[in-house]
Amino acid sequence: MSKVTFRIFRFDPANDPTPRYQEYEMPLEPGITLLNCLNKIKAEKDATLTYRMSCGSAICGSCAVRANGHAILSCKTQASELVKDGVIQLDPLGNTSVIRDLAVDLEPFWASIRKVKPWLMPDATDNPEKERLQSQEDYLKIDHATTCIMCGACWSDCNVLEVDKKFIGPAALAKAQRFIYDTRDVKTIDRLEEISEPHGVWDCTHCGECSTRCPTDARPLGRIEEIKQAAMAEGVHGNSGARHVLAFRETVGKRGLLDENYVPVRSVGFLNIPGLLGLMPVGLRMLWRGKNPPVIPHSVDKVEEVKKIYSRSEEFRK
Ligand code: SF4
Ligand code: SF4
Ligand code: FES
User: Fold this and answer.
1) Which one of 146, 220, 226, 314 has the minimum C-beta count within 10 Å?
2) pTM score, two decimals?
3) Nearest CA-CA partner of 172 in 215, 207, 235, 218
4) Using one digit for the tens of pLDDT, what is the confidence trace for 77-90?
5) Which of the residue ranges 32-36, 155-159, 271-275 would you say has the lowest mean pLDDT?
6) Domain 3-105 maps to which CATH number in 3.30.420.130, 3.40.50.1000, 3.40.50.300, 3.10.20.30?
7) Which residue has the least CA distance to atom 6 on ligand 1?
């Protein structure tokens, strides 16, 4: 069995407050998971090493850590898959503060989940004697989101959270989709309006990291797209994200290209004076660098072909 070096982040504010890495060498047994490696290190080499775990079966969501820079569920990952030049580097989840070693404070993550009111709000006048039944077809609309195990891997690697601590985050958005698409819930519009506020669903940049890191079928980016589709279909358009979509549709549908003078103004809102003033520095920078689009917009060649594609896609959408 070849030996592997585990390079593990250590931080103990009470006794050893300077963050550092500590290395442990260990042979990798065939088929051993990363979590079992951590358990072996703790049992045989260093009882002070701190990390979270419970079920060992990819159910409880407590064992997520970053391996070689990316979040993974340690009980679901073969250690052998992580070895790079004989080393596995382990860090606490990103976008969190560390409590000790690999254990992090997940309170901001849980606060984001609470924000989307993660419980069913059915018609109060409808009081069934037993459970509220759902057809299989209806259940399939929320099937992906219900597999979320609240591990925080998506939160750890979300690029928007790195720059905006108020962003609601991918797990809460997946949870919101689970109730927006639940046919027994009657608060769909309220939920869509709340999630469309600043720092909500429209602030996601579609980088896809959350879905790449998600260890289940929840895959938040897909759920985020579904929320946006629902918001557009239900007429929740009073926000810059939805207006941006409408502006894209209008300019591509009319002229076959993006009118970069019109799209930002339409997105911010024609009567939103502070928002429009906020666009001025970008506009002036573009002007300064000669990147401003022509003031009188033109159409692309063969715009009729684009219009045909556009109207076919509109029919398909309807
Ligand atoms: S797709 Fe959106 S929510 Fe997911 S990681 Fe990227 S920015 Fe965050
Ligand atoms: S969406 Fe996926 S990665 Fe995010 S908390 Fe749920 S299971 Fe974990
Ligand atoms: S220990 Fe429960 S999910 Fe890994």
Assistant:
1) 314
2) 0.91
3) 218
4) 999 999 999 999 99
5) 271-275
6) 3.10.20.30
7) 207
